[in-house]
Amino acid sequence: MEGKNILENELNYDAHNTLGEQDGEIVLNDSYSLIDDRDSLDKGSDVNRKEEVRRQRREKEIRNLKASKAYKFISTVTTLADKYFLDALLGLVPSVGDLVSSIFGLPFIYVTLFKVKSIPLTLAVIYNYLVDILLGSIPFFIGDAIDFFSKAHVKNLDLITHYVEGDKKTIRQVRSKALLTAFLIIILSVIIYFVFRLLIGVTEWTWTLLIDMFKWLIGLF
Questions:
Q1: The model scores a pTM over 0.70
Q2: Distance separating alpha carbons of residues 189 and 184, to the nearest angstrom
Q3: CB 111 within 8 Å of CB 157
Q4: 73: how many CB neighbours lie within 10 A of its CB?
C-alpha cells in the first residue's frame, strides 16, 4: 500500500512538472507575441511618420512653386494670351504671328524643366505648343479662328498645376506617353518647318503680286 502511494506521488509530481513546463512555454510564447506586436506597431509608426514627412515636404514644395515669380508669371501670361486673346490676335499677323506668339510658351518650358525638373512634363508642354502652332498656321483665317478656341497656355498651366499637386492620373499619362511625345515632337517640328517655309514663300509671292498690281494701276494714270 505504501509503495502504491509512493508511485502515485511520483506520477503526480511528474505530471505537475510537465504542466509547469508547458505553462512556461505558453507564457514564453505569449511574451514573444507581445514583443512582435510592439515591433509591428513601431514599424507602422515609423512608416506613418515618414509618409507624413514626405507629405509635408511635398506640400511645402507646392506652396513654394506657386509663390515663385516664375509660376506667377506663367499665370499672368495665361490670362493675357488666352483669356484676353492676345495670342489669337498676334496670330492674325501673316506667317510670323504664330511664331511670335509661341514665345509666350518659353516661360512654361522654363518652369517644367528647371522648377519642376520633369523632362516628361516638359515634353508634354512642348507638344501642346507645337500642336497649337500647327493649327494656327492653317491658311484662309481658319487657323486664326482656331486660335480663339485652342487655349494652349490654359491647357499647359492646368497640366503643370495638376502634375505638381500630385494628381496620379496626370502624372501617369505624362510619364507613360513621354517616349511617344518625344517622337511626335520631332514629327511636328519637321512638318511646321516645311509649312512655314511654304507660307513665307506664298506671303512673299502675294506681296510681290500686290506691288506689281499697284504699280500697274499707277501706270494707267
A1: no
A2: 8
A3: no
A4: 14
